[in-house]
Amino acid sequence: MKEGLFITLEGGEGVGKSTNLAYIKHLIESQGGTVITTREPGGTPFAENIRQLLLENRDESISETTELLMMFAARAQHLRHVIQPALEKGYWVLCDRFTDATYAYQGGGRGMDMNMIKWLEAKVQGSIRPDLTLLLDAPIKVGMERASKRGKLDRFELEKLTFFEKVRATYLLRAEQNPQIIKIINAAQPLTQVQEEISLVIQALLRK
């Protein structure tokens, strides 16, 4: 079994990232890999506190710049205390969202300057980038219908459909620009078919 790699799952609301994260963990562990699963924003106690601040609904609006900087502040903690140490030990790291989400949500959805995001990415992450990103893609209405069944919606989930259309378009553009790393999975299919697609990608990675 080769040394661990950094795999991220991306996509909008209700596309099944949590379910499929567990599935990928099982696939890799069945081949003898040691797997760490984590998420963004979050992953450490301090970063989880930032996550709560970002997601909870409040009377005071959060500026786009504040939101962006909080995302990278949480990411800096996450990288230092979870992701980087795990990779150095040869573990596989599976992360529910990473910097592609920042490009999609803050860049696409909020309209933030992509060059600013790119600059922060370089400063905070150094050379650390995902080895593989699985983009779980589904029409916005399909994802939001699924998300609405999970309970109370968070601050992001309450955004208008136009926001999520911009998020999805940005994700798909990044996949087009980075086809060697970002693989699109049709998440509108039944779960068994989604996981068949995922398995093909992961098995190909394991064989390399």
**In one word, what is the shape?**
globular
The number of domains is: 1
Mean pLDDT: 92
- Uncertain stretches: none
Largest sheet: 5 strands, parallel
The second-level CATH architecture is 3-Layer(aba) Sandwich
CA distance, first residue to last residue: 10 Å
Number of E-state strands? 5
- CATH-derived topology: Rossmann fold
Order of helices and strands: EHEHHEHHEHHEH
Q: Would you summarize the structure shown here?
A:
This protein is an alpha/beta fold. It is 55% helix and 12% strand.
Report on this structure.
A five-stranded parallel sheet has the order 2-3-1-4-5, sandwiched between helices. The chain has a single domain, classed as 3-Layer(aba) Sandwich (Rossmann fold), CATH 3.40.50. The chain contains eight helices and five strands, in the order E-H-E-H-H-E-H-H-E-H-H-E-H. With 208 residues, the protein is α/β, with parallel strands linked by helices.
Features:
208 residues, 5 strands, Rossmann fold, 5-stranded parallel β-sheet, 12% strand, single chain, alpha/beta
